[in-house]
Specification:
alpha+beta, Rossmann fold, 5-stranded mixed β-sheet, 518 residues
C-alpha cells in the first residue's frame, strides 16, 4: 500500500503595508525668520518620516504667515483634511497643538473629523496620539491652553502695535494702491500714482465716480489685486488721507474673537503727518472731501458715528424675490410725466442675471396703506389671537424646557461629585472614571447648548411680542389710513420683498410677512 504524506505549505510572511504619514507645519507671520523656521520644520519632518521603515511620506502641508485661530484661513490645512477624508493619508504628525490650531473648538472638530476616517494625529511636543486616547479630556485641556496662549500673544502684540502707533514708528507693510513696500518704508509706484492722480483730477473736474470706474475698466487698468474698478474702490481712494503723505493709524481693530471691525470711536486713533511721500496735495484732497460730502448731502446720506442713514423709508429695504438684491430709486419719465420707481440692482447691472422689472413708488405706498388698513379692520381676529399664542408659547414650552434642563444639569453636577468621591476613595478604576466623567461632560455641554438656544429663541419671541403689542395698540386707536406715512413704515416694517410687479410682501417687525397685490 502506498504511503501518502501531506506536505505543509510554508507561507511567505506578508509584507506589512507602510503607513502613509503626512506632516503639517505653520508659521504665523511672513517674516524671513519665520519662513526660515518653516523650512526647518519641513526638513525635519521629511527626514523624520523617511527614517521610519514602516512609514512613507504622504506629503508636507504648510501655511505661511497664517493665523492659527481660524481654520477657514488655512488653505493647506483644509487640503490636508480633504486628502485624509479621501483616504490618501493614514496618519498626520505636527509639531504641537499650537501649530495645528489655537482655537479649542476648531481643534476638537478637526480631530473628530480625522478620527471618523481612522486617521490619528500625533502632536510631537505634547507626546499626544489621538489614535490611542481613551478620551478627549486631555486634548481639550491642552488646546484650551494653546488658545489662551494665542490670546495672550495677541494682546501683547496689540500692546506693541499701540506703542508704535503712539510714537509714529508703525510700518504699513501692505500700502494702498499707488505705493509699494520696500521692506522698510512705503515708496511711490510711479505707474499706479499716475492712475491715482487721474482719479482725483477727473473727480475734481466733475466726472462721476461710476464713470471714472467705467473708464478705467474700459482701458483695462488693473486694481491693486488685479480686479475690476468699482464705485467703492474709487471712493476709497478719494477718501484715503495716505495719498497726502499723512496717515491715520488704527482705522480698524480686531475684537476678542479675532474679527476685524471699522473703528468708529471704539479705539483711539493716531494721526501722523509727513509719514511718507505724497501723491496728492492737501488742497486737492480736501477739495475732493468737500465734494464727496456735498454729494452725500444731495442724496440725503448723513454720516453718523456708526452707519449711514437713508433719505427715503424704502431705501435699502426693498428686496428682490428673484435674486435677493436690493432695489435702487430712480426717476422715470413717461409722456412728459415723471414718477419715482424702484429697480433691482442686479437687473440694472445685467438684465440676463435677473428678470425682475421695476415697480412704481406710488404702487408700493398704496399696497402698504391697504395692508395696514386690513390690520386695523381685523385686529381682533388676527393680531390679538396671535399675541396670545406667542405669549403662551414663550411662557409655557420654552421656560418649562429650560427648567427641565437646569434640573438635569443639577443632577449631572451631583453625579460628577459622587464620581469624584468614589475615585478619591479608590473604588473606581482610572479608565472607568475617565469614561464616566467624559460622558457626564458631554451631557453637560449638550444641556448648556440647548439652554442657550432656547434662551435666544425666547429672546426673539419676547422681541416679537413687544413689537406685536405696539402694532396692536396702534391699530386699536388708529383710523383708516388715507395717505402713506413714512414713519409708520419705519416703525412697524423691516423690509419689502418683491415677488413680481403685481405682488409684494411686507415683512413686519412682529414676525408677520403679509402679502399684498398691487
Amino acid at each position: 500500500m502506498k504511503t501518502i504524506t501531506k506536505l505543509q505549505q510554508v507561507k511567505a510572511p506578508a509584507e506589512k503595508k507602510k503607513l502613509r504619514v503626512a506632516a503639517y507645519c505653520r508659521v504665523s507671520t511672513g517674516s524671513d525668520a519665520q519662513l526660515e523656521s518653516l523650512d526647518t520644520q519641513k526638513t525635519y519632518f521629511e527626514n523624520y518620516i523617511n527614517s521610519r521603515k514602516d512609514w512613507e511620506l504622504a506629503g508636507i502641508y504648510y501655511d505661511e504667515g497664517i493665523t492659527g485661530t481660524k481654520k477657514e484661513k488655512r488653505t493647506a490645512l483644509l487640503q490636508l483634511m480633504s486628502d485624509c477624508e479621501s483616504h490618501q493619508i493614514d496618519m498626520v504628525i505636527t509639531k504641537s497643538l499650537s501649530r495645528f490650531s489655537r482655537n479649542t473648538t476648531d481643534c476638537l472638530e478637526l480631530v473628530r473629523r480625522l478620527l471618523a476616517v481612522n486617521v490619528p494625529i500625533f502632536f510631537e511636543k505634547e507626546n499626544l496620539n489621538t489614535g490611542s486616547m481613551e478620551s478627549e479630556l486631555m486634548l481639550a485641556i491642552l488646546s484650551s491652553m494653546a488658545e489662551g496662549e494665542s490670546t495672550s500673544t495677541s494682546e501683547n502684540t496689540k500692546w506693541a502695535v499701540q506703542k508704535r502707533f503712539q510714537n509714529g514708528t508703525f510700518k504699513i507693510s501692505y500700502p494702498p494702491y499707488g505705493y509699494e513696500w520696500n521692506g522698510e518704508e512705503m515708496k511711490v509706484n510711479p505707474e499706479q500714482a499716475d492712475v491715482v492722480k487721474h482719479i482725483f483730477s477727473a473727480f475734481l473736474s466733475g466726472t462721476g465716480i461710476q464713470d471714472i470706474a467705467k473708464d478705467l475698466n474700459a482701458r483695462q487698468v488693473p486694481t491693486k489685486k488685479g480686479g475690476k474698478w468699482s464705485h467703492g474702490t474709487i471712493k476709497g481712494i478719494l477718501a484715503n488721507e495716505k495719498y497726502t503723505g499723512d496717515t491715520i493709524f488704527q482705522k480698524t481693530y480686531t475684537d476678542a474673537q479675532f474679527n476685524r471691525h471699522q473703528n468708529n470711536g471704539e479705539k483711539d486713533q493716531y494721526f501722523c503727518a509727513e509719514h511718507h511721500e505724497a501723491i496728492i496735495s492737501h488742497e486737492d484732497f480736501e477739495l475732493a472731501a468737500r465734494l464727496l460730502e456735498q454729494h452725500s448731502i444731495e442724496k440725503g446720506i448723513v454720516k453718523g458715528c456708526d452707519r449711514y442713514q437713508q433719505r427715503y423709508a424704502f431705501s435699502g429695504n426693498i428686496i428682490c424675490g428673484e435674486c435677493g438684491a436690493t432695489f435702487r430709486r430712480r426717476i422715470h419719465t413717461c409722456k412728459g410725466h415723471k414718477y419715482v420707481a424702484w429697480l433691482c440692482n442686479t437687473h440694472l447691472a445685467d438684465v440676463k442675471a435677473c428678470s425682475m422689472l421695476y415697480i412704481r413708488n406710488d404702487d408700493l405706498e398704496h399696497a402698504f396703506i391697504t395692508m395696514m388698513n386690513k390690520l386695523i379692520f381685523s385686529r381682533k381676529t388676527i393680531l390679538a389671537p396671535l399675541l396670545e399664542q406667542l405669549k403662551n408659547t414663550n411662557e409655557d414650552g420654552g421656560i418649562r424646557r429650560i427648567r427641565e434642563l437646569e434640573r438635569q444639569l443639577l443632577q449631572i453636577t451631583e453625579q460628577r461629585q459622587t464620581l469624584q468621591r468614589l475615585m478619591a476613595q479608590g473604588y473606581l478604576d482610572q479608565i472607568i472614571f475617565t469614561q464616566q466623567k467624559n460622558e457626564l461632560m458631554t451631557q453637560t455641554e449638550a444641556c448648556k447648548t440647548e439652554i442657550e438656544m432656547l434662551q435666544n429663541c425666547s429672546g426673539q419671541a419676547s422681541t416679537r411680542i413687544v413689537e406685536l403689542q405696539k402694532l396692536l395698540h396702534f391699530t386699536e386707536h388708529a383710523d383708516m389710513l388715507q395717505a402713506f406715512e413714512e414713519e409708520l413704515f419705519t416703525e412697524y416694517a423691516n423690509r419689502i420683498i418683491v415677488y413680481s410687479r403685481e405682488k409684494v410682501g411686507f415683512e413686519l417687525k412682529c414676525g408677520l410677512t403679509l402679502r399684498e397685490r398691487m
